[in-house]
Structures are given as C-alpha cells and as structure tokens.
Amino acid sequence: MADDDWAALVDQQESNQLSSRVEKNLTIGATAATKQVPLPGSASVATGHAPAVTGQAPAVTGQAPVATNHVPGAGDANGEAEQDEKELSAAEQSLLRKKLSNQLVATKADLEILQKDPNSPLYSVKSFEALNLKPELLKGVYEMGFNSPSKIQETALPTLLADPPMNMIAQSQSGTGKTAAFVLTMLSRVDTSKPYTQCICLSPTFELALQTGKVTEQMAKHMTSLKVCYAVRGERVSRGQKIDSHIIIGTPGTLLDWCIKFKVIDMKRVDVFVLDEADVMIATQGHQDQSIRIQKTLRKDCQMLLFSATYEQDVMQFAKAVVPNPVIISLRREEESLSNIKQYYINCKDKEAKFQALSNIYGAITVGQSMIFCHTRRTAAWLCEKMIAEGHAVALLSGELTVEQRAAVIERFRDGKEKVLITTNLSARGIDIEQVTVVVNFDLPVNTQHQADCETYLHRIGRTGRFGKNGIALNFVDGHRSMQILKCIESHFNRAINKLDAEDFDEIEKIGQ
Ligand SMILES: Nc1ncnc2c1ncn2[C@@H]1O[C@H](COP(=O)(O)OP(=O)(O)OP(=O)(O)O)[C@@H](O)[C@H]1O
C-alpha cells in the first residue's frame, strides 16, 4: 500500500486496518527475556535536504477567531522574564524566550519546577553533559534551547548510547521529548566519514517524517559533514544509484521501494533502525508488513528502537516478539494521560449544535491555536466551510490533499497563518506545534467497531500540552452512544472528564484561565 493510501484510510476510518490489532504472529529473531530497569519517578521499566514543500495550501479566508480574553499572568510573566534573563546563559535565554512567546510557561522557574518534580514526565536529575554526547551534538542541543533532558531522555539515552548497542521499546507521554531521544541516538552512532546509510527512521506519515528530519538537521547543525535524506513520496531514486546519506528518514512504503525495488541502500550496513509511533506502525497491517520486510533486510545486531506514547497490550506483545532482547520502558495506565491537559465534555444534540458550541467557545476564550478532529473528511470539510462563513481563519487537512499540500498546510499552521486546523485522525499523532492550546474532538475517536479508540484519543489530545504547557481538550458528546464512548475513555485512563455547559459563558471563560 502506498503511504498516501494509508492517509486516506486513516482519516476516513473506513478501513479496519487502524484498529485491527496484530493478527499475524511474525517472529523475527529470538524472543528474549526483558530486562528490568527502574525508571526515575514512577514509570515502570521492564526491560540532505528536506523535500521541497511545493503544494498549494487550500484557500483560506475569513478572519481569525475572536480572541476576547486576556492571557492570565502574561503581563507579569514578561516582567519576571526580564529579571530572569539577566542571569541566564544564551541557551537558557533562547529556551525561555521560546517558551514565553508560546505561553508554554509563565517564567523560567515554571519549567525548572516541572523538571524538578519527580512526578512530572519532564523530571530530570541529569544534565545533557552527563549523557556523554559528542561536543558538536551538545552544542546543537543547547542551541535548540534544551537545558536539561526530560525523563524519557535521561532514562533512555544512557542505555541507547551504551555499547554493545541494545534494542529498546520505549513509551513516554505525548510531548515529552521522545523525538530527541531517538534522534540523539542516531546522531551519536553515525560516523560521517563513512559515505553510506547507517541509520533509518520510519514515521507513519509524510508530515511526521519531515518534522523529525527538521529536528535531526537542527540538532546536527554542528555536524557539518552529516547528510540526511528523506525517503518520502515524491523523492525519486534510480536503480543502481547508491545513497550516501548517513541518515534516512522516511515512510515505510517509499523506504521499502528504495531498499528492495531500487536497492539504493546497503541495508547490511545500517546500525540503527527506528520506528516512531511504533504501535500504529505495528497495528496498521500495511505498515506492519512493510516495516517487517524492511527489518528482515537488516543485520541481526542492528539496534532497533521503537517509540510511542501508547502501546496496546497485544501490540506490545508483538513488538516484544519481533525486537530481540529489548529494554522496555513503559508507563502505567494512569500515567499515560497528562495532568497539564484539562479535559472537558460538552453535550450537543447534533452537528449544528456542536458548531454553535464551538462558536461560543471561540467567542469567549482566547485560543492560541487549536486543532479540531472530525471522524470523516466530509464532516471536516463541512465544518471548515461553516467556520469560514463565520469569519474564522481555518485550514483543512485531510487525506484527499496531496502530500505536498498537506505539508504546506502544516507549515502555514505552524507559522500561525491560520489559528484553527480542522483535520481527521491523519494528524492525531506526533505533530508538534507548541502554540496549540486547545484540541477539540468534534467527533470522539472510535474504531471500526464503533468502540472508543482510547489510544487515538490520547494522541489527539496530546497535540496540546507540549513539554509541560497547559492545554485544554474539549469533547463533543451527541447522544447516549457517544456518552458511553466518553465514559469508556474516562475509565480507561482513570481520569475525570468534566462537563462544560457551552451556553454558560462564565463557565467557559473559567476554563481559559
Ligand atoms: N530536553 C528538552 N528541553 C526543552 N524542550 C524539549 C526537550 N526535549 C524536547 N523538547 C521539546 O518538546 C516538544 C515535544 O517533543 P517531541 O515532539 O519529541 O514529543 P514526543 O514525546 O515525541 O510527542 P508525541 O508522542 O506527541 O510524538 C518539542 O517542541 C521539543 O522541541
């Protein structure tokens, strides 16, 4: 299946592939005993160039949603920030400015407090220096404004960088820095004096592959001889050509073509193989087949890394069966959802009422940027039209756009050109846009049996609340069935989702504070 077809399947939810869990029991290599390693805090541990974004984003009209509210503490924050900045290093200042400008934290102290709280997934006792990164890599990390590692980074990296290399299946909450953990591993292991591919990272979508590539390029800014290339739709290779890029980031369909059909990569020389959003790669039949076929071409001692915020039990079982001797970092169920994302539900009798509720909310609170998830492309397109007619600046992202158009839509949204992104499950995972303060589940996520899709719920709401920022998740409930789904999600994560009355402006204003 082409990468793009998958997008269509995901966002229409017409396929049973996303929810069909592991059916085949393919085993590659030995299934090994897992190692037990304690994780600080409370989580349990068992053991080139970016493709040009040329597509035209669909036309966007109308005005930004009305922002009437004052951002709490923003004024005070600026004053404190000035005070703080006097004592900060350049890297600290860059991080602080970034976080303040995105309202991620009110002051530098907020982020520091989070990183010192053993219950926070941002908790860290180590410094990046203590992780023994190459000096040029350390420089890149600091220039990105990363002061100290998050919990997943400080827990995973010592194991990931140890010799002999160990395989890992890692879980950490959304927005807690998994990307940097596996990118730093690739960049630490690569030898740029050798002109061939040594690391491969697979992502489920074009947009995510591009995003990960961008992080890699930023981190490797001072590794001047490093070459990164993208195995994504539209990037052409010819038979017989040998790729000399040290790191390839791509989607499974294209990468499979490159390694099996065109044979442009010497797979036996690859030292690190990463599956980002590993659970969906495993649970989606097409991606699973492609990833397994790619994995079969690798050396037995190639280091395999699987990362995600969620793993259903059967997916984890399958992962353990295909990854030899993995060190496993996992979370307890109650740790999976983040307390910095406040979750609410709103009763609406139908689609029109949901739209009205949205209008009320956008009229009452300041929404930095928001993402609205719909069940189908049709609903997404309908909502987009309605919002544009009301004067909102919205963008629509669904699988019917070309990958180039999709990437262009994301870039515009990332740059703040539109405040609202209406989308489907296509964008539920991985997309990292710090300014997203609100996620709306216009339709609750369900699988093809119309049961609650708790994993997708977690990934969707995880588009806000990035790296400690506060976020709001709003869930529209239209009837008994939909309420049952909500209750199911609530009990799955054992976290209350409170009721919000969309007619009560005082109440709405309060959630924005
Ligand atoms: N050590 C750090 N210090 C400061 N910011 C960081 C650090 N590590 C990562 N970040 C920032 O945190 C944000 C979230 O990171 P990332 O996208 O890697 O999360 P994730 O765990 O992969 O989330 P998801 O499960 O949604 O894919 C990014 O904007 C990244 O730049």
From TrEMBL:
SUPFAM superfamilies listed in its UniProt record: P-loop containing nucleoside triphosphate hydrolases (SSF52540)
One Pfam assignment: DEAD
E.C. designation(s): 3.6.4.13
Gene Ontology CC terms: cytoplasm; nucleus
Catalytic reactions of this protein: ATP + H2O = ADP + phosphate + H(+)
Assigned keywords, A-Z: ATP-binding, Cytoplasm, Helicase, Hydrolase, Nucleotide-binding, Nucleus, RNA-binding
CDD domains (alphabetical): SF2_C_DEAD (cd18787)
UniProt GO MF annotations: ATP binding; hydrolase activity; RNA binding; RNA helicase activity
Chief localisation class: cytoplasm
Localization per Swiss-Prot or TrEMBL: Cytoplasm; Nucleus
SMART domains, A to Z: DEXDc, HELICc
Protein name according to UniProt: RNA helicase
Organism: Owenia fusiformis (Polychaete worm)
